[in-house]
Design brief:
Strand order of the largest sheet: 1-2-3
Order of helices and strands: HHEEHE
Oligomer: single chain
Mean pLDDT: 77
Number of strands: 3
Number of domains: 1
């Protein structure tokens, strides 16, 4: 192998490396996106289950129990970048009964920030600050 061929290999590597790195970062962001999306679905499912079986006991409201269930599922979120908004149309009264058979909606919105791309490309490209991932479940109260 002479000097020209060694130089050619270095040039080809220098041309291919940025593209490969961009593909690898894109895959990492995609996996993070799906991890957040699956976590949002799991959180809303747990919140719906908590709303479905809630009974007034004088210690916590239905919304408190739903919030606690959702928080148990989403402990790893970074509060600086990912924010969670929870809404449940069940009672905030300690002793209020939810009629059996009535529907309770639980919605979880996670404002996800694609950290890799927003950090890497913030000077050349103005991406949206956050992407809202919304998931809702309607459960029938038992």
């Amino acid at each position: 192998m002479d000097k020209k061929e060694k130089g050619q290999g270095m040039v080809e590597f220098a041309l291919v490396l940025p593209t490969m790195m961009l593909v690898v970062l894109g895959i990492a962001v995609l996996f993070h996106f799906f991890a957040v999306l699956v976590t949002a679905h799991n959180a809303v499912s747990e919140g719906g289950r908590a709303a479905q079986v809630w009974r007034p006991d004088g210690t916590s409201t239905c919304v408190d129990d739903v919030t606690a269930a959702v928080t148990r599922i989403t402990p790893f979120f970074n509060s600086a970048t990912d924010t969670i908004t929870l809404s449940a149309n069940c009672s905030t009264d300690l002793w209020a009964r939810i009629p059996s058979g009535s529907l309770v909606d639980v919605t979880v919105v996670i404002n996800w920030e694609p950290v890799f791309f927003s950090t890497l490309l913030k000077d050349e490209w103005d991406p949206p600050t956050t992407i809202p991932l919304t998931t809702t479940i309607s459960v029938r109260h038992e």
